[in-house]
Structure formats: structure tokens, C-alpha cells
Amino acid sequence: MGQRNQLLTMSNIDKVFNGNVQALKDLNLTVNQGDFISLLGPSGCGKSTALRLIAGLMRQTSGQIAWNGGLNDGDLGVVFQEPTLMPWATVEQNVWLPHRLRGKSLTEVRGEIMWALKMVGLENFQRSYPRELSGGMKMRVSIARALVTQPRLILMDEPFAALDEITRHKLNNDLLKLRDKLKCTVIFVTHSVFESVFLSDRIVVMAARPGRVSAEVNVDAPYPRTEAFRTSADYAELCRKASDALHGAMNQHGERASA
Ligand SMILES: Nc1ncnc2c1ncn2[C@@H]1O[C@H](COP(=O)(O)OP(=O)(O)OP(=O)(O)O)[C@@H](O)[C@H]1O
Questions:
Q1: Using CA positions, which residue lies closest to atom 29 of ligand 1?
Q2: Maximum C-alpha span of the chain
Q3: Which end of the chain is more exposed for a tag (fewer CB within 10 A), N or C?
Q4: In what order do the strands lie in the sheet with 185-190?
Q5: Pocket mutation for ligand 1, best pick of 24, 49, 59, 196 (most atoms within 8 Å of C-beta)
Q6: What angle do CA 7, 35, 8 make, to 5 degrees?
Q7: How far does residue 211's CA lie from ligand 1's centre (Å)?
């Protein structure tokens, strides 16, 4: 793989809540165009906080987030753990939301909505309501909504954590296909070593109290990744490596906590 251009840089990021909860301390992270990065770490290490800072949903207490080429409208798509769909609106109307908030009519962007639904395999469900869909399908709608503006960066906060394992594997496979088609950059928050190894090319392991980057694991396995990769010795070895890094991060926490 060739040298990738930088997309964004987070430098010396601190985030303190309510004057005394230090969620992040001196977090440094460079994201390159085309990266699939997983943020992996124990509960409370600040993964969601880091993602929300990148999304601009909150501001850091200190430090800088710099975007190469600036951040334009529609450059970011965000997917949360819950699909957060409007139950009274159809699939099509739900996916319309980011454009609607920008003042565009449904007719004007119907082509883009259908493109996004096709990307997630739901092109025949545009008139359905969320209650008529399975958990996995609702999550696909949520992903289509994040894709509809054709963002450069997709931020995903444990999007598949609430799904059963078979559905989760399927959506992991589909997400990689999608990323291959769109050539977008993804930052993916997860608790799962297995999921992080399957999906990403870089795993950023975070430690808690205060939240910071503890280690980085490069997943040197080629894409496309298939079921054969999931059952390979290489995958098992990479999972062991990521798991060791995670335990290292948790021990750092323990040492600090008991110091
Ligand atoms: N709005 C908030 N107000 C006060 N404290 C907060 C707020 N959001 C997060 N925190 C605290 O900041 C720390 C980091 O939280 P964050 O949700 O980012 O961690 P996380 O790694 O995503 O956790 P999890 O894996 O459990 O979702 C935690 O101690 C949390 O309690």
C-alpha cells in the first residue's frame, strides 16, 4: 500500500467534563485518507468522546483538531450504536434527513437517497417503516443516512454491538465491501478485539483514566477480507496481538489506579 495523505490530525487533545472528569489527556492521532481505524479500549477510556470531538458534537478543552483541506458541509457521516431512526417516517424519509436539514427537498435528492439505500442493500424498502425492519436492517438504514451526503469520513460508535453475532458478521462483511466501493475513511469504535482485527488496517488501543492512546496495532492483512480470513491462523495471531495490547492498556490503568 502506498503512502496515504493525511485527512486529520488530533494534537495534544484534553477533554475535561464538569471541571474534574478528565476523559482524554494528551491524545494524539493522525488519520490518513482511506484508513480504516478502530478505536479499541476498556469502557470509559474516552473512545466515544474522541469520536464526538471529531464529529464536532462537542469541543475539546485544549489541543487542536486540524483537517487537511478543511471540513466541508457533508464531509462527515456518523453512525451510533442505536439506529436512532424516526419511527413515524419511512426509510426514505429517514435517509433524507441530512439533506432535509440542509434545506433540500425529497424530490431534489431522491436519486442520492436511492443510491445510499442501494449501497446497503435496501433499495426495495424505501416505503417501509422502521417497525417493519429487523435490527440489522434498521442499522443499514442508519448507515445509508450517514452515507447519503457521500462523506469523506464515516464515524461509527459501536454500531453493531447490540446485534446478534451472525448479523454482526454479515454487517462487518458488508461494511468492508461498502468501504471498498466508496474508498472512504472510517473510524470505528468497538470493544471487540475480533471485530477490530477483521475490519481495520490500524487498531488504536486506548487506556483509561485518563483516556489516551496506549498502543497501535497494524493489521497487515490484505483486503478483501472474507470468511476464510476470519478462520485463518493469521487472524488468530493478529487477535492475540491486539488482545495483548488491550491487556497492556488495562494494566496501565491498574498501575495508575493503585499508585
Ligand atoms: N457528558 C459527559 N459528562 C460527564 N462525564 C462524561 C460525559 N461523557 C463522558 N463522560 C466521562 O468521560 C469518560 C469517557 O467516556 P466515554 O463515553 O468517552 O468512554 P468510552 O470509552 O466510549 O466508554 P464505553 O466503551 O463504555 O462507551 C468516562 O469517565 C465518562 O463517564
A1: 44
A2: 61
A3: C
A4: 76-79, 153-157, 185-190, 36-40, 202-207, 212-218
A5: 49
A6: 20
A7: 9
Residue 202 sits at the vertex; the CA angle it makes with 59 and 249, to the nearest 5 degrees, is 70
State the pLDDT at residue 255: 44
Q: Is 20 in the pocket of ligand 1 (CB under 6 A)?
A: no
**Same domain (yes/no): 26, 93:** no
Q: Distance between the two ends of the chain, CA-based, in angstroms?
A: 43
Question: Helices marked H in 80-164 — which ranges?
Answer: 91-100, 106-119, 135-147
Residue 65 and residue 170 in one domain: yes
Alpha carbon separation from 46 to 43, 157, 190, 212, 251 (Å, rounded): 8, 12, 12, 8, 16
The letter for the amino acid at 116 is A
Residue nearest to atom 16 of ligand 1 (CA): 46
For the stretch 130-182, pLDDT in tens is 999 999 999 999 999 999 999 999 999 999 998 899 989 989 999 999 999 88
Whether residue 96 lies inside any domain: the answer is: yes
- Give the separation between CA 219 and CA 143, rounded to whole angstroms: 24
**What stretches of 16-125 show up as alpha helix (H) in DSSP?**
47-55, 91-100, 106-119
Task: Report, in angstroms and rounded to the nearest whole number, the Rg of the chain calculated over CA atoms.
Answer: 19
Percent of the chain with pLDDT over 70: 97
ipTM of the complex model: 0.97
**Could you tell me the distance, in angstroms and rounded to a whole number, from the CA of residue 163 to the centre of ligand 1?**
22
Domain containing residue 36: 1-75+164-259
Is the domain of 90 the same as that of 122?
yes
